[in-house]
Amino acid sequence: MKTIKNIFRAVRADMGGLVTYRVMPSQEVAIDDLEPFLFLNHHGPQTYPSRNRGLPFGPHPHKGFETVTFIVEGDIVHTDSTGYNSKIEAGGIQWMTAGKGIIHSENSSKEFLANGGNVEILQLWVNLPANLKNTEPAYTGLQKDDIPHIALDEGKVVADAVSGEWFGQKGSLQSIADVHIATIGFQKGGKINVDIPEGRTVLFYVIQGKLNVNNEEVNKLELVEFDTENGEIQVEAKENSLLLIGHAKPNHEPVVAQGPFVMNSEYEIEQAYQDYQRGKFGSWKH
């Protein structure tokens, strides 16, 4: 079995009226501790009333990494400076490669603004290696039914294979940096074993419920840090649960993050700000 090094609890850090838990980075987890996984915010769960203002994520730039957004409940309308515009609903994901620079917004739909409803959303930032930081920006939105659902343990466990390969089945996406990500839903008593190749960083965050993980209890809002040795992760659900899991090879490069940019040096951060101010991230026409 893989060794658990630490278990960290997310910290409450609301944003513009949106209930938010900062999973990482935090006072306990440095931005490069689980590189290439850099940043994870867990928004909600909460209920918005009718005639609400929706999500507080207006147009803003990014460069040098990828964002993966998981819609557990509610919806998100993504728009960006390359022309993409898509509404993704509960169970879906949004995968955006910021690459050499993009401007995007994430807002609630007109229907949600009018009628309200439940919201639970996670956003993950995944670093890109230096040779991919200036790749062309891209976006893919997947609805729930676009993602393979893999039934395990006689149907008591269902894995949604977002990217890479899980339990012998390819995910919806094959990332440019070989990042494997899934969400896994458990009924109480459901069990799985997950083999992670040696040398890869594991992302393991409990969104909902309570799990027994390699003989240790892990509750909702908790992030598990494993060693990078080859080994198995044994998971059993103590109650109905939802898990975010991923693995990727660390880049072993300097991580310099400032605001919405993640590069390898202070000079590159300064250049990113200059490129944004000069309109090199595209124009906002929405």
UniProtKB/TrEMBL annotation:
Coiled coil: none annotated. GO terms for molecular function: metal ion binding. Gene3D superfamilies: Jelly Rolls. Its cofactor is Fe cation. CDD domains: cupin_pirin_C, cupin_pirin_N. It comes from the Bacteria. Keywords: Iron, Metal-binding. Fe cation binds at H60, H62, H104, E106. InterPro entries: Pirin, Pirin_C_dom, Pirin_N_dom, QDO-related, RmlC-like_jellyroll, RmlC_Cupin_sf. Residues 28-126 form the Pirin N-terminal domain. SUPFAM superfamilies: RmlC-like cupins. Residues 185-282 form the Pirin C-terminal domain. Binds 1 Fe cation per subunit. The keyword Metal-binding applies. Belongs to the pirin family. PANTHER family: QUERCETIN 2,3-DIOXYGENASE, QUERCETIN 2,3-DIOXYGENASE PA2418-RELATED. This is Pirin family protein. It comes from Dyadobacter flavalbus.
